[in-house]
Amino acid sequence: MAPGPGGLEPAMESSIPAHLTVKRTRTKRVGENYTPPYPSYSVRFAEGVSNLVCAFLGVQSKQPLSREAKAASDGMWELCARDDGPISREHAVHTDEQGFDNQVIIAYWDDAEAYGRWFQEHRDALIGAGLEPAGHGRWIEAFAPEARGFETLYSSNTFPEGAARVATGAYSGEIQEHGYWGSMRDRLPIAQTEALEPAGDPFIPDNSGIVRVEPHHNLAVIRSGQDWSLCEDSELASYFGDVEPQLKAGMDFLTTEGASIGCYANRYMTSSDGDGTVLEQSFGLSFWHSLEDMERWAESHPTHVAIFMAAMKFLQANAGAKLRLSHEVAVVSRDQQYYEYNNCHSTTGILGAGRALRVGHA
Amino acid sequence: MAPGPGGLEPAMESSIPAHLTVKRTRTKRVGENYTPPYPSYSVRFAEGVSNLVCAFLGVQSKQPLSREAKAASDGMWELCARDDGPISREHAVHTDEQGFDNQVIIAYWDDAEAYGRWFQEHRDALIGAGLEPAGHGRWIEAFAPEARGFETLYSSNTFPEGAARVATGAYSGEIQEHGYWGSMRDRLPIAQTEALEPAGDPFIPDNSGIVRVEPHHNLAVIRSGQDWSLCEDSELASYFGDVEPQLKAGMDFLTTEGASIGCYANRYMTSSDGDGTVLEQSFGLSFWHSLEDMERWAESHPTHVAIFMAAMKFLQANAGAKLRLSHEVAVVSRDQQYYEYNNCHSTTGILGAGRALRVGHA
C-alpha cells in the first residue's frame, strides 16, 4: 500500500542517538514499522558528554518561607555562578506535605568532573556545615546519570526546559519510541542491554544535624513538566478544569502514599523566579525504587490512568494545543547519587524513603 | 526484607508451560521479581497437543433470526456430534451492526487432524454448498493456532469457559505474567523468540454466493469474556451500571470504527442455549491485523482505557467480586485460518476487513 500522502513516511529517528546505539540483547516493545500517533522529540547532547549532572539545591522553613531561608537560597544561587558551576540554573517552589515551603535551585551540568570540583569546593557552604543551628533546613539531592542512563521526551522542539537547556545538540527529529507504555525504557540507551533491576535498599540514618541518605543501585528519577505560558484562554480553562486536578491528585498520591508502590519521594513544584514569584510552568520530581515500579504506576495505577485519560481528552478537545510537555528520566547507580539534609523535617525528599521500605520488596 | 507473611512468596509459575519454554531471544517486560497485584491463571493443555482449533459456525438473518436460519444452526450443531467432532461446543448470539441476528456455535478441538477430517467431511453441509439460495446467511470462521501461538488468562481457576473446556491439564497455579501491559505477549510461548509482525493483507473477493477470505500471516484473534452468573445483586448493579456501558461502548467502537486501528472485525456476543435463550455470560471476539495493533488499542485507546478504569474501580468497590473474566488470544499463520461466507451481508466478520486496509499499513 502507499506509504503516505507524500510518498514517504516522514523521517523518523530513534530517541537513542547513533553514538549510544549498541546491538540490542533486550527487545523493544514495538516493531520496526511502529509509527507513533503524534510527534515528539528528544534532546541531543554532545557526543563527548559521558554523564549529566542534575542537582536540586533546596531550602525550607515552615510556611511562609523565612527571610533566613531565602537568604540561604540566594547564597546557593551565587555559588552556582562560581567556576565550574552549572550550565543552567532555574528556580522552583513548592509547599510540601508537612506544610513547609521549599525554594529550590535546579542546576544542570554536562561535565561530571566540573561538577565534582565545584561540589567539593562548595559542599559545606551549600549544606550549611559549620554554621550555627538555623531556623531553616537545607538539602541537596543530586544525581549524575551516564548519558546512556538518561532519556528525554518533549512534545515540542522549541521548549528549552530542564535538560534541554544543556543540550548543545538541540533537538532530535521526530522519534519513534513514544506513545506506548514501555517507550520510556525503549528510549533509554542502557536498556538496550540491561534490565535495570534495583539492588539493595536505601540507608536512612536518624535525622539529626546533617544526614546523608545512602541510596541503592538502579534507583530511577523522573522530572515531568508542563508549561502553559503559550496557551489560549480556552485551552487554559480546559487544562485547569480537567487535567490539572487529576495531575494534582496523582502527585498528592505519590507524595503521601507513594511508599506503597515503590515511590520514595515526590515533589509537585512550580517554576519561579529568584523572588519566589511563580511562572506558568510546573513539574513533578520523583524518586523510585526501580524503573519497573515507575512503569507500573504510570500504566496501571488509577491515579495515573486518570491523568492519562484527562490528557487524552484534553488533546482531543484542543486541536493544536499549545500546552508543552517535557519528561526526563534517569536510572542511576549507587555512586551516581547524593542526598544530604541539614535540619530538614523527617519526610523531606528521599529522607522520607524509610516509608517506602516494603515487605517483600527486596 | 521479609518475603511475606508466610515466610515465602506464594508459589508463582509462568503462564508458559515447561514443555513450551525455550531460551528467550526476546525479553519479557517485567523482571524476575515482578509480583502481580492479584492472582490469575492460565489453562494447561496436554503436552501432546500441537495445535488447538476454534471454529465459529454462524447463521444470520435480518432480526429476528428466521426459523430457517435456526434450523441451519441446529443442523450445524448436529454435525458437531459426528465422528471427529469438537470436544466442546457452545452457543452464542448477537445482533450485528447491520441489524442482523447471528446465532453462533463455538467449537473447540485439541487435535487439528481430527478437525481436518471432520471439516473435510462436513464443509459443504456447514456452509450450505449446493443448496438453493436461502433467506439466511451461513458463515465459518476457524483458526488453528499452534499451542505455542495461543495463550489464556482467567481470573478464576473454577471457570470452564471457552478453551478451558478443552484443557485436560486443567488450570495452572498463579501465574506471573499478568497485571501489566505487554503481559499478553509475555504469555505467548512463540513470543519468546518471535516478534509476530504481520505480513501481507487479507484478500476479500466480491461478496456473491460462497466467498472465502484469504487472510495474512500473524493475524491475531482475541476472545475476551465475562460471566456474572455468580454475582450478588450489588455487584451486578455495579457491573451493569458502571462497567458494562464502557465495555459496550468499546465493543461498538471496534465493530464500527475498528478499521482505523487495525481491527478487522469485532462481535460482542452473549452466550446462549440452543434455543437462543441468553445466559449470564458474554464475550467479545475480534480479529486484528497484528498483536501489536491489539496491544496499542488495549493500552492507549480512550475506549479501552475507559473500560480498564471502570474495571479497576469495580474491583476496588467490590471486594471479593464474583465476576469471572476470561481471555484467549491466538496468533495464527496464514494457513491456520479459514473464513468462508455464504449469502452474508458485506460486513459480516472478516468479510468486512476491506474496511481495515489502511494507508501505510503494509
What is the oligomer described by this structure? Answer: homodimer
Instruction: Please state the average pLDDT score of chain A.
Output: 92
Number of helical runs of chain A?
Answer: 6
CATH fold name of the largest domain in chain A? Alpha-Beta Plaits
Please summarize the sheet with the most strands of chain A.
Answer: 11 strands, antiparallel
Low-confidence stretches of chain A: 1-8, 356-362
Largest interface: A-B, 44 and 44 residues
Give the strand tally of chain A: 11
User: What structural class do the secondary elements of chain A suggest?
Assistant: alpha+beta
Q: Using the alpha-carbon principal axes, give the shape of chain A.
A: globular
Any idea of the CATH class of the largest domain in chain A?
Alpha Beta
Gyration radius of chain A, in Å: 20 Å
Strand content of chain A: 15-25%
Order of helices and strands of chain A: EHEEHEEHEEHEEHHEE
Helix content of chain A: 10-25%
Strand arrangement in the largest pleated sheet of chain A:
5-10-7-9-8-2-3-1-4-11-6
User: How many angstroms separate the termini of chain A?
Assistant: 51 Å
CATH architecture label of the largest domain in chain A: 2-Layer Sandwich
What is shown here, in short?
The structure is a homodimer of 362-residue chains. The first copy, chain A, has helices at residues 67-80, 112-127, 183-187, 233-257, 291-300, 302-317, and strands at residues 53-62, 88-95, 100-109, 137-143, 150-154, 210-213, 219-227, 263-272, 278-288, 324-332, 337-342.
